[in-house]
């Protein structure tokens, strides 16, 4: 009986450590996303221009090249990693809650 109690407590601590590790990963990824976002070029303001109705570049055939393309790929990759880490944190936390009840 006491051994079962210790085992469940040990599993819970391990699960909490896993969640804590993923939260640290999410923090690092979010800081990297902020950094990449600040480095990115601000030449296209399609979001704000779309609200004003002054979006002349909407259908222009211009491709990102060089550093702009690299930063765009980095931002997309970091966003995908952030999405996956957040879903993982939610699933592991849910499993810990279900496991304790």
Automatic annotation (TrEMBL):
Gene Ontology MF annotations: protein-transporting ATPase activity
Keywords: Cell membrane, Membrane, Protein transport, Translocation, Transmembrane, Transmembrane helix, Transport
Domain of life, per lineage: Bacteria
GO cellular component terms, A-Z: plasma membrane
Listed InterPro entries: SecG
Keyword Amino-acid biosynthesis belongs to the record: no
Membrane topology according to the record: Multi-pass membrane protein
GO biological process: protein secretion
Bilayer-crossing regions: 20-39, 73-98
Record localization: Cell membrane; Membrane
Protein purpose: Involved in protein export. Participates in an early event of protein translocation.
Sequence similarity: Belongs to the SecG family.
Protein name: Protein-export membrane protein SecG
Organism: Spiroplasma helicoides
Encoding gene, per UniProt annotation: secG
């Amino acid at each position: 009986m006491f051994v079962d109690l210790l085992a469940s407590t040990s599993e819970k601590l391990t699960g909490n450590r896993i969640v804590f590790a993923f939260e640290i990963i999410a923090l690092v990824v979010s800081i990297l996303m902020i950094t990449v976002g600040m480095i990115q070029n601000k030449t296209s303001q399609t979001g704000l221009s779309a609200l004003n109705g002054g979006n002349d570049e909407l259908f222009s055939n211009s491709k990102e090249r060089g550093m702009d393309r690299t930063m765009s790929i980095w931002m997309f990759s970091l966003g995908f990693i952030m999405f996956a880490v957040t879903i993982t944190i939610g699933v592991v936390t849910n499993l810990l809650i279900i496991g304790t009840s």
